[in-house]
């Protein structure tokens, strides 16, 4: 069974991703570590604990990590997409899942250090601040990580968040630079792959509602602000699912139908290009896999299967 630490800035699509991971039969979540991003850190950690409660399976510890980027002033959040509470302004009650003691950065290092299997993996579905800080704290320990799967970056798409960069990457590109130079292999699930046929449309929402389950309703209700934003800003009656797409790749790698290997670097100096990932496909020292295409039907089947009970 594959084992993961999931690092998240838990808002509405992250919440769906966490429930999917916790309900999967073939992976185990060792810990959930929370970071700044979509919402303030305290909100992210609360939403992670709500997600654990909604999954109703097992309870990995939930830790709070870093509340701001490593070097930059935090300039953006995503409440306009996810609501002030990050979960569609649904006002969910305080979860009964406790916040675990200890800082997420140290806990990542501790969990990796204690593992001798060589099989422990990380998954980042928010900015990579916690992961980079763990590398700075214990670089040799973090080299034990088998792979880091990231929802972030771009492949061909422009204007993902800034003209050249995707949200998770652009919020702390210096952290991404540290990760890319750490010796850790990274699998990017870029924003390009997470749009289009993976989006949850009206017919998909009807399927989820038809189950009459708490999780099916949670998947839609917690994303109602995201739905309204997509309707108003883009004229699209859909809920976009970036973070669940990355988790689906972990749960069922057969979903991947296209990818390439490359040496990735990141732009840090240009005001217009900050956060853009750059790929060298000819490099000898390749450090990442970039997913370029997935089976959208399999992805949606996985979302539906998660919500049926």
Oligomer: single chain
CATH superfamily: Ribonucleoside hydrolase-like
Please write the string of helix (H) and strand (E) elements: EHEHEHHEHHEHHEHHHHEEEH
Number of helices: 13
Query: Helical proportion?
Result: 25-40%
- Rounded to the nearest angstrom, the distance between the terminal CA atoms is 22 Å
**What low-confidence regions span 5 or more consecutive residues with pLDDT below 50?**
none
Q: Note the overall shape.
A: globular
What is the tally of beta strands?
9
The chain-level mean pLDDT equals 95
Name given to the CATH architecture = Alpha-Beta Complex
- Per CATH, the class reads Alpha Beta
Which structural class best describes the helix and strand composition?
alpha/beta
User: What fold name stands as the CATH topology?
Assistant: Inosine-uridine Nucleoside N-ribohydrolase, Chain A
What's the domain count? Answer: 1
Main sheet attributes: strand count, strand direction, barrel closure: 9 strands, mixed
